[in-house]
Specification:
mainly alpha; 198 residues
């Protein structure tokens, strides 16, 4: 599978689990320290818009990366943003363009940037599933590709920790599967969130 297809699968699974949230779920804690489910989904929505802008050559404009005003239906806003980023990534030549990603410190080849988005949505799909206590359904090809991309995500401490989407990397136990490895590379402790099949 190419990275655009891998990303599409991860984004669609993230949208599926976000759509499972009900009104009483938005205040639930998530594996993102200090973020409830509403804030996590708002972050995911903003990232979709920012990456879509980057695919159009507008990633350096910070307005595209801002979390937008709540419209009362976080799942619907997220679904629309997911549709927008998938359409942007599917445009001819997207993987060859340079994407400016301010949070990661500059420009990246489109294929690399879409890879970062892909692993972001493997992890954030798991975050939402963990918060809701529901299983995550991702194909073996997706899970198998995720650790290699996770190893390429910048590890600068200035961009990891409280208030950021990823915490510092954790030790990977011997025999860890690809999803656990990916999660731990990006600072998640799957053992603290049972019920997602990790």
């Amino acid at each position: 599978m190419d990275v655009v297809e891998l990303d599409r699968i991860a984004v669609r699974e993230a949208a599926r689990v976000v759509d499972l949230a009900r009104e009483g779920d938005w205040a639930r804690d998530t594996p993102c320290a200090g973020w409830d489910l509403r804030r996590l989904v708002a972050h995911m929505t903003g990232q979709h818009h920012g990456f879509a802008a980057a695919a159009r050559g507008e990633g350096g404009e910070t307005r595209f990366w801002r979390q937008r005003a709540e419209d009362g239906d976080p799942a619907r806003a997220h679904r629309r943003a997911a549709d927008a980023v998938l359409a942007a990534f599917a445009q001819p030549g997207a993987v060859e363009r340079e994407f400016v990603l301010p949070e990661l410190g500059g420009g990246f080849a489109g294929r690399t940037a879409i890879g970062f988005h892909f692993v972001d949505y493997v992890v954030h799909a798991w975050d939402v599933a963990a918060a809701l206590g529901v299983p995550l359904w991702l194909a073996d090809e997706v899970l198998g590709a995720a650790p290699a991309v996770a190893r390429r995500v910048p590890t600068d401490p200035a961009g990891r920790g409280p208030g950021f989407a990823f915490a510092p990397a954790l030790k990977i136990p011997e025999g860890a599967g690809p999803l656990e490895e990916t999660l731990r590379l990006l600072g998640r402790e799957p053992e603290a969130w049972p019920g997602t099949g990790v």
